[in-house]
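Regression test case RT-17, inverse folding.

Input:
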């Protein structure tokens, strides 16, 4: 499994309230949620993001409330992967549950810059910054997590693997 895209970079403690503001939680429409993704921290994110792009964050990405809407908004905006120094525990689990690929890699979080072109190999955990010709090593996904992501989330994985 590979992801390749351009980087949208954010700092530490990006909480779920800026990923998808609470004022939009009255909808279950994933595309509607995506249309407001990151708007309180980056009002132009939805205009700039392209299918396959990657978000890089700092420490404690996804902190705050435990809403599943945050990874849903990110995934449906076209983002293929989120790389961060660390993730909030519930955000991490919610991301896997809905099939959003996420990797913890402090070195990548520090060295990758906005606009860089990056490829992620989920089988090996190797993150290649093509812009800087650098590689960083994250922990690769266990096979069961790769299967959940390939199936577009835990519920689809369970349905498809009865």
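Golden output:
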């Amino acid at each position: 499994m590979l992801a390749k895209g351009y980087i949208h970079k954010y700092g530490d403690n990006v909480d779920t309230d800026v990923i998808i503001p609470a004022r939009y939680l009255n909808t279950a429409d994933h595309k509607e949620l995506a249309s407001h993704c990151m708007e309180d921290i980056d009002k132009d994110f939805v205009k700039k993001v392209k299918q396959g792009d990657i978000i890089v964050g700092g420490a404690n990405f996804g902190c705050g409330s435990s809403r599943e809407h945050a990874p849903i908004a990110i995934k449906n905006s076209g983002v293929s992967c989120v790389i961060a120094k660390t993730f909030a525990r519930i955000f991490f689990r919610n991301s896997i549950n809905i099939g959003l690929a996420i990797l913890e890699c402090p070195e990548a979080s520090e060295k990758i810059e906005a606009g860089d072109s990056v490829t992620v190999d989920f089988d090996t955990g190797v993150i290649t910054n093509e812009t800087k010709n650098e590689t960083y090593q994250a922990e690769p996904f266990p096979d069961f997590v790769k299967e959940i992501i390939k199936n577009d989330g835990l519920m689809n994985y369970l349905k498809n693997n009865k």
